[in-house]
Every structure is written in C-alpha cells, then in structure tokens.
Design brief:
This protein starts with 6 loop residues before the first strand and ends with a helix. The mean pLDDT is 77. It has 116 residues and is mainly alpha-helical. A two-stranded antiparallel sheet has the order 1-2. Helices cover 56% and strands 7% of the residues. It has 3 helices and 2 strands, in the order ββααα. The chain has 2 domains: 1-31, no CATH class; 32-113.
Length: 116
Amino acid sequence: MAANPREFRYGTTKIPIDCNASIAYPAAMSMTLTIRNLDAGVKQKLRLRAASHQRSMEAEARAILATSLAESVTDSDREIAKIEQRKRIESVIGIWQDQMGGKTTDEIMHELRGDD
C-alpha cells in the first residue's frame, strides 16, 4: 500500500501535511532552538544551575524560559485587565454624569433617599 503524500506518519498517528507549505512541521514533533554567541559566563551559570537542579543544560534552559514567559504573560495580562477595567469605569462615569446632569454619586444618593 502506497503512503499518502499528504500525510506524515508519527508512530501509528497520521498527521495531515499542508501541501502549500514549503516545510511541514507536524504538531507532534518538537521544535529546536539554537542559541548562538552565548557568553561563556552565562553558559557557566546555566551549567551550574542545571547541575544544582539535577537537570541537563537543555532542560534547565527550557525551565527558565517557561517560568520567565509564564510570569511575564501573567504580569502583562494583569496590566491589560487593569487598563480595560479603567476604560469601562471611565465610560460608565461619563454616561452617569451625562444622564444625571453632572451630579456626584453622593448628590444622586441623597436625592434617591430623600435625605435633607
């Protein structure tokens, strides 16, 4: 039986290949990252840190990248959420002031309660 030229076999799994792509990277395959011109001091620190965690330098570099990016995404998400929340509050404040004749919240509450 001839293999389908539009699919890639990874073990027993058949993975479709985009025939329009110049290079097909099946999702099941891992990616390789090469870091050139790494300072000798940085390399030594990575080697020592990896040894202290009983990992290879490659595994240590993956852990450092994953931790660093997870933290930065979280910080970034928090900032974005703060900005969006502030925009929502400002939009409501604008509507509130327009509909209530520029009165403050305290003034409106006094009116609603009938406070003197």
